[in-house]
Design a protein that fits this description.
Length: 225
C-alpha cells in the first residue's frame, strides 16, 4: 500500500524550531514568533499558488521571516536570519515517527513523503531525521510549481506510482492538507495531535488519530492496483 506523509508538522516537529528562535528573544515571544512565521510561510505558499507567482519554499520561508521580524520590531543580521532559517533544514522527528514508519515498512507498505519543501530541504530533513531507509520516495511540489493543497501537487503521487487516488492513503497533521487531499480523492488519515476541530470545507478525513503510533492498526484495506 502507498502511504503518503506530509513532512513538516507530521513526521517532523516544527515546534522545535522555537529553540533556535529563543537565541534572539524570550521563550514566550519565541513561541508567538514561530507561530506567526509558520502562519505566514503557509499563507505565502497559498497566495503564490493562487497568483501563479511560484518561488521555492526556502525563499517563501525567508520572506515569511522578514515579515515576522518586522511585525515584532526585531532586527537580525543576515547571518542570524540564516541561522533561523537553517532550522527548517535540520528538523527533529516526532518520537512516534520512526517507529511508525518502521512498522509500516516491515509490513511491506510503501511510505512516501509529499511536501511543499524544496528537494534539497527534504533531502536534508530526511538525513537529519535518519529516515533514509524507511521511505520509498520523497516528492517535492517544486517539480510542478504548485503548492499543496492544489490538486496538481497531490497528483504527483498518482503519476509517480500509477495508482488511483482512492487507492492511496494520505497522512497529515495539518487540517488544510487533509481537506485538500480528501477533495482530491485520497483516503485520508488526520493525525490530530492538538485535538483541533475539523476544517469546515465540506469533507471529512476517513480516520482521525492523535498520534502516528496508532497508524499501523488503523490502515484500511485498499486495492493495490
Amino acid at each position: 500500500m502507498i502511504i503518503v506523509f506530509d513532512a513538516y508538522g507530521t513526521l517532523w516537529d516544527v515546534s522545535q524550531i522555537q529553540q533556535e528562535c529563543e537565541r534572539f528573544m524570550g521563550k514566550e515571544q519565541a513561541q508567538s514568533f514561530l507561530s506567526l512565521w509558520r502562519q505566514k510561510q503557509l499563507e505565502y505558499a497559498f497566495l503564490r499558488t493562487i497568483m501563479h507567482q511560484y518561488v521555492p519554499f526556502d525563499q517563501i520561508t525567508h520572506e515569511a521571516l522578514l515579515y515576522t521580524l518586522q511585525y515584532f520590531h526585531l532586527s537580525l543580521s543576515a547571518a542570524e536570519q540564516n541561522d533561523l532559517e537553517q532550522a527548517w533544514w535540520n528538523p527533529v522527528a516526532f518520537d512516534d515517527a520512526l517507529p511508525a514508519l518502521n512498522a509500516l515498512k516491515s509490513a511491506s507498505h510503501h511510505p512516501v513523503i509529499l511536501s511543499n519543501g524544496t528537494p534539497l530541504m527534504l533531502q536534508a530533513g530526511v538525513k537529519a531525521t535518519q529516515m533514509q531507509t524507511v521511505l520509498d520516495g520523497v516528492l517535492s511540489v517544486d517539480i510542478i510549481q504548485h503548492y499543496k493543497p492544489h490538486p496538481d501537487a497531490y497528483n504527483l503521487v498518482v503519476t509517480q506510482f500509477n495508482r488511483m487516488p482512492s487507492h492511496i492513503v494520505f497522512v497529515s497533521s495539518n487540517g488544510w492538507d487533509i481537506a485538500g487531499a480528501s477533495h482530491f480523492g485520497f483516503y485520508t488519515i488526520w493525525i490530530n495531535r492538538l485535538h483541533l476541530p475539523t476544517e469546515e470545507l465540506g469533507i471529512r478525513p476517513k480516520i482521525i488519530t492523535s498520534s502516528l503510533s496508532e497508524l499501523p492498526e488503523k490502515l484500511p484495506t485498499l486495492p493495490s492496483e
